[in-house]
Amino acid sequence: MENQKNIDHCSWQIAAAKGRIGGTKEEIKKEASPEQKQKLESELAGYENDLKHNEEKRKKLEKKST
């Protein structure tokens, strides 16, 4: 049961990261300021890293539960 909670949490984190990635990409398209664009691109890299980490963690947990 605990493993399923962890899988569900990873799934939620993945969905949240995908939402942040999509929103940040839209902001980057709209921004004119090079400084703001650089800041947003840095945030985007962090969100993409979070997404990758949580996808890998969920796969390991799913393997463990089978």
Structural notes for this entry:
Helices cover 92% and strands 0% of the residues. It has helices at 2-30, 34-65. The protein has 66 residues and is mostly helical. 5% of the residues are buried. The mean pLDDT is 92. It contains two helices and no strands. α1 runs antiparallel to α2. It has one domain. The protein is elongated and about 50 Å long.
List the SSEs and their pairings:
Elements: H1 2-30, H2 34-65
Helix pairs in contact: 1-2
The low-confidence parts are none
Query: From the alpha-carbon coordinates, what is the Rg to the nearest angstrom?
Result: 15 Å
So what's the overall shape?
Answer: elongated
How far is it from the N-terminal to the C-terminal residue, by CA? 13 Å
Q: How many domains would you count in the coordinates?
A: 1
Number of helices: 2
Q: List the helices and strands in order.
A: HH
In short:
Residues 26-42, 49-66 have a biased composition (Basic and acidic residues). With 66 residues, this protein is an all-alpha fold.
Fill in the keyword field for this structure:
92% helix, mainly alpha, 2 helices, 66 residues
